[in-house]
C-alpha cells in the first residue's frame, strides 16, 4: 500500500481514528509514526491530570497496524488485530501523543509490531509513556477494495434474486400452465 493511501485509510476512512484526530506523520516499509493532538475530551484523570489509557491503547494499536500494513507489498492486504498488550509506564501528559511502531515480523497470515508511545513535547530521547506489543491477522483477498463509508448496500433495495422472483410466473394466476 502506498504511503498516500495508507495515510488516507488511517486518518480518514477509519471513523474511530478520525474521532481521535490520528495523524500519520511518517511511514516506510515496516515503520509508522502516528500522533494524536491533545483535546480536553481525551483526559482520563482530571485530578492528575493525564490522558485516558484507552487513547494510548488505540494509538498503539493503530500505529502497529499501520507499520504492519506498510510492510506488506500486496495492495489487497487487509489487517485486523488479534492480540494487544500494553504496559503503561507513566501518565501521558496533556500534550500531543506520539506512537512509533516497528514491525518485528510479517508472514503470510500474521504480523507482529512493537510500539513505543511518548509525549511529543519532550526533546531528543523522549521518556516512554507506554509500550505495546501487537499481533495482527493478515488477509490477502483478490480484488478486495475498501468501500467508502457512505456506500453501504441498502438491505431493502431489490437484488438479483428479487428480480428473478418477479419474472417467474405466479402459480395462482389463471394463465399459469
What is the CATH architecture annotation?
Roll
What's the assembly state of these chains? Answer: single chain
Helix-and-strand structural type: alpha+beta
- What is the total tally of β strands? 8
Instruction: Return the CATH topology.
Output: Thiol Ester Dehydrase, Chain A
| Shape call | globular
Unreliable sequence segments: none
In CATH, what is the homologous superfamily? Hotdog Thioesterase
Strand proportion, as a percent range, falls in 35-45%
Give me the side-by-side strand order of the main sheet: 1-2-6-7-8-5
- The number of helical segments is 4
Your description of this structure?
This protein is an alpha+beta fold and 177 residues long. The protein has one domain (3-147): Hotdog Thioesterase (Thiol Ester Dehydrase, Chain A). Helices cover 24% and strands 35% of the residues. The chain contains four helices and eight strands; from the N terminus they run H-H-E-E-E-E-H-E-E-E-E-H. The chain has helices at residues 3-13, 15-20, 53-70, 160-167, and strands spanning 23-28, 31-36, 43-45, 50-51, 77-88, 97-106, 110-119, 128-140. It has a six-stranded antiparallel sheet with strand order 1-2-6-7-8-5, covered by helices on one side. Strands 3-4 form a two-stranded antiparallel ribbon. The chain is globular and about 50 Å long.
